[in-house]
Specification:
By secondary structure, this protein is α+β, with helices and mostly antiparallel strands. About 20% of the residues lie in helices and about 35% in strands.
Length: about 350
């Protein structure tokens, strides 16, 4: 066997590829139902300066203390607060090139192979975008997001147990914990729950009338999805695992499109002839109740992964006022929770 442009072929018989390298990533976060499609956002972008950022108004709730109705007390009126949420478009592009000579010596059209994998590649990119956004919003300061990070983060030096998810949901959302529908965790965490017989697997009845388990578990009434791309932090003697507990529609989503999403380019001279496949996309992912700061968006056309993961670029939706008049979106309605649990090498509890 020899290598040419990272394409493996049999030098003696020029054996063709019979199958593609298996795709390991499953991207359960992306597929879990946390995205709430809203294509109206894409059409509204043309009305915004730059076409990459939306500042969407949100009406507040009525409130105030009821007055005594006794015939002599004046009735005063309060106005509702107007909140606004900033939503920014994430643009990404990638190209792949294949030389004619690779096909000549192997008998395989590698450009077709590349084209067949483009959608899966963008799924990986989109899941990474969501994880970077999650990293960003859980790095927000207390000033920008009063109460959110502390309440919505549950961290323990123990393994994920029978009460972990329920305790984390109550800590973050109280009576609103019913908004949480999924827990997306690493297979190591899920295996620990399986070993404790804590996961209930959904069942189905086959054509022969036999009841069988589906490969989908549930815990505390929430669907458990297994995805090894969930963040881990390995230190000497232990590994911390991040599990995300999320609600349906935790992110608004819109495919904003590009002028030319896909195109082929050919250079008949370079390297004896080669073909390029270029792909582009622009998508909007907006976490519920959380804004990408307008002041940052004025300088950023499309945020990089590092900018998405920077907590300084995010804040809770608010009314835009200052000091004592500033009011924030109630974080107990945001169905996004970060759970960090620990697995030690020797199976014992580790100290922080």
């Amino acid at each position: 066997m020899r290598l040419f442009d990272a394409k493996t072929f049999d030098g003696e018989v020029f054996q063709k590829y019979v199958k593609r390298v298996p795709k390991y990533r499953v991207n359960e976060l992306l597929k879990s139902g946390v995205l709430e499609p809203n294509q109206e956002l894409a059409s509204r972008l043309v009305d915004q300066v730059g076409g990459n950022y939306i500042l969407e108004p949100m009406t507040g709730l009525i409130g105030g203390k009821a007055l005594n109705y006794d015939g002599s007390t004046d009735i005063t009126c309060d106005s509702t607060d107007t909140f606004s949420q900033g939503k920014i478009v994430v643009g990404r592009a990638k190209g792949w090139v294949e030389k004619d000579f690779s096909q000549d010596i192997s008998g395989k059209d590698f450009m077709d192979n590349v084209a067949d994998q483009v959608s899966g590649y963008w799924e990986d990119v989109d899941q990474d975008t969501l994880i970077n956004i999650l990293n960003g919003i859980f790095s927000m300061s207390e000033t920008d997001a009063p109460g959110f990070v502390k309440a919505h983060t549950y961290k323990t030096t123990k393994e994920f147990g029978a009460t972990t998810l329920n305790t984390a949901m109550n800590k973050a959302m109280g009576q609103n914990k019913g908004l949480i529908k999924n827990a997306i965790m690493h297979s190591d965490v899920a295996t620990g729950l399986e070993n404790l017989q804590l996961l209930d697997y959904l069942k189905y009845t086959d054509e022969s009338g036999i009841t069988r388990n589906l490969e989908i578990g549930s815990l505390n009434g929430r669907t458990v999805l297994i995805d090894d791309s969930m963040p881990t932090d390995t230190q000497e003697g232990y590994t911390d695992y991040t599990t995300y507990a999320l609600g349906t529609g935790a992110f608004e989503y819109a495919d904003c499109g590009t002028a030319v999403p896909y195109e082929m380019d050919r250079d008949s001279k370079k390297n004896g002839g080669q073909t390029e496949l270029i792909s582009r996309q622009r998508k909007l992912f907006a976490p519920k109740g959380i804004s990408f700061k307008a002041s940052k968006a004025q300088k950023i056309i499309s945020p990089t992964d590092e900018e998405l993961a920077d907590g300084n670029n995010w804040e809770l939706v608010n009314n835009g006022q200052t000091s004592v008049k500033k009011k924030y979106f109630n974080h107990k309605f945001i169905p996004i929770i970060k759970i960090v649990t620990r697995i030690t090498e020797d199976g014992t509890e580790a100290s922080v």
